Each structure stands twice: as C-alpha cells, then as structure tokens.
Amino acid sequence: MKEGNEFLLVRLGTRRVGLPISFVIAVEALGPVHPVPTSEAACRGVTMTRGRIIPVLTLAALIGAAQGEPGETAILLSINGKNFCVEVDDAEAIIRGEPLPLPKGESLPWASGVIRMSDRLVPLVDLEAVGERLTIPEAAS
Questions:
Q1: Which end is more exposed in the chain, N or C (fewer Cβ atoms within 10 Å of the end residue's Cβ)?
Q2: Do 102 and 110 contact (CB within 8 A), yes or no?
Q3: Is residue 54 predicted with pLDDT exceeding 60?
Q4: Domain with 89 in it: what CATH number?
Q5: Which domain does 101 fall in, by range?
Q6: pTM of the model
Q7: Rounded distance, CA 62 to CA 123, Å?
C-alpha cells in the first residue's frame, strides 16, 4: 500500500480524525507553550522543539470542533514549506486504507474524505487546504 493511504489517527476529546502521514514529521509530548501575538485564531503560541521555535495550533480550532482542555501531544507537520505543531489529546495509531468520499449530507468542509475503521467512519483532515488558509508568518516557521 502506498504512503498516500496511511493516516495518523488522532483524538480530540471523544472525536477521532485522520491526518495524512505524508505531512507528519514527528509525534512528541507537547512542551511549554508560550503565548505570542497573532492574527491566527487557532494559534495557542509557540514552543521549542528540535532546537527551533515552532507555532502551536489547536487542531480542534482548525476544524471547528469543540475544544476542551489543552492537549498533551504535538504533531509536528510540514505543509507548503511551513512547519508547525498541531495540539491533540493523543496520537493513537497509523491506519491504512482507501479514502472514501464523504457520506451524502455530511458537512465537513475541512475533510478530504473518510476512512472505514472497524464499525465507524473516520474523517480525514485536508491538511493542504488547512495549510493554505493559515496566517502564520514565514519567519515563525
């Protein structure tokens, strides 16, 4: 199975979504997050990882999901030349399979499709579309 069919299953509260593994650099414990002024509503601040200061975005805010307590896991991503972390509650597994179209009537503008996992469908986050609308300054990434 090719890499394009692999997704990192992450948990946001009780919700699970898949992130295309091709964008994932690392999964790490989220260190201290320092607030910074920004126009990006999903940005919690910055953290130091791998010797660099990286913006931390709340994945729940990016996809319009309910936000609970701050997550403890950072998914380091690279999208369109920008590196940043998305904060999640947990990274659970790598799942493999063919993406399916969104079911009729579903309104998930942030999803590129779904993947069947056991008895449920897991939405797949369209990270390219998310990355295009981010307003993170180039100097921060």
A1: N
A2: no
A3: yes
A4: 2.40.50.180
A5: 3-140
A6: 0.89
A7: 14
